[in-house]
Each structure stands twice: as C-alpha cells, then as structure tokens.
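Example record

The entry below shows one chain as it appears in the dataset: sequence first, then structure tokens.
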Amino acid sequence: VIKALDTLPDGFAPHPTIGKIIKRRSETLAAGAGLEWGTAEALAFGTLLQEGYHVHVSGQDAERATFSQRHSVLHDQNNGTLHVPLSHISAHQSPYTIINSPLSEYGAVGFETGYALHDPKILAMWEAQFGDFANGAQIMFDQFLSAGETKWNAMYTPIISLPHGYDGQGPEHSSARLERFLQLCSEPVDVPAYSEAERHHKANMEVTTPSTPAQYFHLLRRHVLRNFRKPLINLFSKGYLREVSGCNNTSTIAELCGETKFQAVIGDTEVQPSAARKVVFCGGQVYHKLYAARTKAGAKDVALVRIEQLSPFPVAELQALLAQYEGQELVWCQEEPQNMGAYWFVDERFDALTKGKRGLRYVDRK
C-alpha cells in the first residue's frame, strides 16, 4: 500500500502543490511518524482493498476532499491523464471507487445506503462537503439508518463522514448537528456495562468523534472487519487534518499495527490521577485546543479525557476510569452551545454511572 501511495507513473506531472503533498506523505511514511489524517485514511482503505473489501466513497468533493486532505485522484497537468494510487496496489486487490457526487445529499446518501446493503464485503462511505449539508439527507437518517434494522432486519450501514468544528465560519459550515444524530440513538441512559461486542450488537447506530489519524484508521477497518455491521456517523475536525504545532494530532505507524485498535475512551497519560485537580472530558477537535492551552499554561493538575465514541456509550471504560478519579471535579467541555453538541447526552449518562453522586460541570468555548 505504501509503495502504491509513493509511486507515480513515469512522466506523470502532478500539480506542484499536489507534488508537495505527496512528498510530505512519503516522508512521514518513511519515518513511520507524523502521519496525518489523509495518510491514515489511505492506509486503511488500501489494506482493506488488499484484504478483499471493495471501498466505495462518494461526496461533493470526495476525490480531493473539501479540505484537500485526500487527493485520491491525481491529474497530470500536461495531458489531463488521471492516476488513482489506491487502484494500483496489486493485481489481486478489490476495486476502489471514489466519485464526486451530485449536490443532492438525499440521493447520494440513499445510494450509499443501498450500496452498503448489497454486499458485506463493501465499505460504502458518503462524505459531506461541510457537516451541516447532511440535513438534506435527514429522511435517510430517520427512516433507514437509525430504524432500518428494527423495521426490516436490514443492515443500512454506510459510513457518514461529516466535517465538524467551530472554526470561525459562522452558523453554516460549522456544526454537523451532532445532537440530532445522538437523538436517533436507541441505547437507554442506564445501559449496563456490556462487553464491547455486545453493546455494539444492541446499538442501532454508532456515533464517533475521533481526534487522531490512528483512531480514524481503526474506525474504518473495524466497520467492515467485524461479523456484523452498524451505520457509523463519524464527525471529524476540519482544522486538524494536517499537523498543527503544539498539538499531538498526528500518529505513528506503530499506532496502526499489532494489537492496536480503536479506543472509545482515551485517558490522559501526561497527568496522573493522583496529581489531577479536575478531569475535563471532551471529544473531537476541542481536545487539541485544550491540550495546546494546557501546555502553554504549564498546567500539571488538569487531566484531559477523550470520549471518542458516544454511541454505543463506553460504560465499562468510564466506570474503570472514574474509579481512578474519586475526588476530582468532573467537567464536560465542548465547542457547541449548551443546547447542542453532546453535553445533554453525556451528562445524563454520567448521572446514571455515578448514581447521581457526581455531576458534570459544563464549559463551552465562551
């Protein structure tokens, strides 16, 4: 897979900017560190293609990706020839299909939903240009993804990939409306601490907010490698797709290999529980902002814990983690206003987890 990503046809002339991106990707792959979002995705797709899974991706800017992190289809600047690196891994690989879909979210999501139903050896993904554009496909989310298994015993299980984050672009192009997807999740508030497999079997949808390329890599592979399938709503940051100075938002090859896997909860390895005055729970890109602020302030008594999977809720992991922080103040931090985002969802589950003895203090970007 790495060789395919590094290799261009003889005489192929990519755009100079794309050439720099390819060079950067090659350098990080050679070093085994500094892997960015697009590289981790390409490695996930490529390894699945080698293992016999057809990868089918669509979206309004899917080939390049809205934020230029993917560049799956390269264009020769001299003659217009196209080159798709992930279609040139090996002679026995499965097909890789990526298309720029029409500006009809309802139609595109409907197509990927049906495509995912067709064959369990398919990873079908639709990516919004901006997360809020998903509202054009609300019927698919309400009637098929969230309810199809219960109504028709059918696995309508595409990956819905949504850029999400408050990055100064105003009321549009900011929020993927995380709260709407959480309202569609059927898991009860007081759900027991099931095993990982059992809780996923019982859930109607998965909702995730991964903060690192490695987490995203494992999510993509987990989606099709299990012997069952659930629809996955995955919200990702627009602002941390490439390395940001002062943040730990890149990954290593080692974090993709061996026994590594997606972590629903990521504890703080830099602040030990005995040294923590408070524990700030969060998810998605706000973690990186908090991490950078803590580093700049030199704070050694604030632990940052990432809840990267909201549905099904990681009860067992949080029970174990809360046992390490018995007296510390618990805080939930998010970018979204209080009536949006995940606060209401997490707060009532923490109340159930702690039997009402430990509340979550709410903090947002204001």
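Notes for this example: The CA atoms of residues 155 and 354 lie 34 Å apart. The radius of gyration is 20 Å.
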